[in-house]
Every structure is written in C-alpha cells, then in structure tokens.
Amino acid sequence: MTTLAMLVAIVPLLIATGPGAVSRFQIGLVIATGLGIGTLFTLFVVPAFYVLLARDISAET
C-alpha cells in the first residue's frame, strides 16, 4: 500500500507540462522505476532466494 500511494503521488511529476517538465518527468520516472523494481524484488526475488537457501540448509542437517 505504501508503494502504491507513492506511485500515485508521483503521477503529477510524470504528467507535468510547462517549464521544467522534462526534469520533473525524469525524476518521477527514476523514482517510479526504483519503487517498482524494489517492490518486485521484495515480493518475488527475496522469498525465492530464501526458499533456495532453506533447502540447502535442511539438506545438510
């Protein structure tokens, strides 16, 4: 929910017009991409890595 709220808050940066719109878009894009990648890693990559490590440890004991 926190990530979703932050992504919604970034929408004005992504749709900005007028002077400085390019720099606002770039900042918004970097933040949105970073949040998206971080969320995907947290939800999928970290648990998968944990499962792989848990299998190796349980096989040794």
Q: How is the topology of this model organized?
A:
Layout lengths: L1 H13 L6 H40 L1
Task: Report on the architecture of this protein.
This protein has helices at 2-14, 21-60. The chain is mostly helical. The protein has one domain (2-60). Helix 1 (2-14) packs antiparallel against helix 2. The chain starts with a helix and ends with a helix. The model has no long low-confidence stretch (mean pLDDT 90).
Distance between the termini: 39 Å
Biggest sheet, open or closed, and with what strands and sense?
none
Q: What is the structural class?
A: mainly alpha
Helix content: over 70%
User: Which regions have little confidence, pLDDT < 50, spanning 5+ residues?
Assistant: none
The coarse overall form would be rod-shaped
Order of helices and strands: HH
Short description:
The protein is 87% helix and 0% strand. It contains two helices and no strands.
What key phrases describe this protein's structure?
single chain; 61 residues; mainly alpha; 2 helices
